[in-house]
Amino acid sequence: PGRNATLLLVPRGVPEAKGREAIEVDLGQIGTSFHVGPAWSDDKELTAHLLMFDRYEFGEEMGFNIRDQSFDPIPWSASNGGPKLHRVKVDLTSGELTEITKLADVPTYMPTFHPEREGKRCRYMYGTSGVREEGWFPFNALTKMDLEKETTTTWSPAEKRVADECSTSETLFVP
């Protein structure tokens, strides 16, 4: 708690990186990320899309209390704020952070994108999202993120009663 997020870049499979140490990049803000969306690089710059929590307290993940076997996800999700999409750019020569931009406010998790775009510039990313007033988990919506236009489209049940009783799982991209 209270420490800035760090991105660790481990060079592999690149002849120019042979013998180079991993690059540790201070992201300049407090945060925690468990999932990374599309990422690509050229000779000079890495672009990565992280789903970052502004705050995250470990224990009782997703509302499950292992000690008494109880489950209440709403207070847990409200206290952790939800993961938001951020674009991070790193100068690969200096290892310096050149950009960190929050691209979306909708809490989104478990990203997916076209598998043939792995490691290449990618325009669209999809994820499971939470759009409940009282907390983002359990997920109850799907979100499409346009990484070029920096826009999001979210699909959830239109009727509030259905949305509150709905749950979505990890998205899967089928080309």
Please outline the helices and strands.
Blueprint: E1 4-9, E2 23-30, E3 32-41, E4 45-53, E5 64-65, E6 70-71, H1 73-80, E7 84-91, E8 97-102, E9 108-112, E10 124-129, E11 141-146, E12 151-155, H2 160-165
Antiparallel strand pairs: 1-2, 3-4, 4-7, 5-6, 7-8, 9-10, 10-11, 11-12
Describe the structure.
- The strands form 4 sheets. Strands 3-4-7-8 form a 4-stranded antiparallel sheet, with no helix packed on it. A 4-stranded antiparallel sheet has the order 9-10-11-12, with no helix packed on it. The protein has a two-stranded antiparallel ribbon with strand order 1-2.
- The radius of gyration is 18 Å and the shape is globular.
- With 175 residues, the chain is mostly beta strands.
- Helices cover 8% and strands 42% of the residues.
- A hairpin with a 3-residue loop joins strand 3 and strand 4 (45-53).
Descriptive keywords:
single chain; 175 residues; mainly beta; four-stranded antiparallel beta sheet; 2 helices; 12 strands
Q: Please give the order of strands in the largest beta sheet.
A: 3-4-7-8
Rg value: 18 Å
Structural class: mainly beta
Quote the beta fraction: 35-45%
Shape: globular
Binned, the helix content reads under 10%
Order of helices and strands: EEEEEEHEEEEEEH
Distance between the termini: 40 Å
pLDDT < 50 stretches: none
The whole-number mean of residue pLDDT values reads 86
Tally of contiguous helical segments: 2
DSSP strand tally: 12
Main beta sheet, described?
4 strands, antiparallel
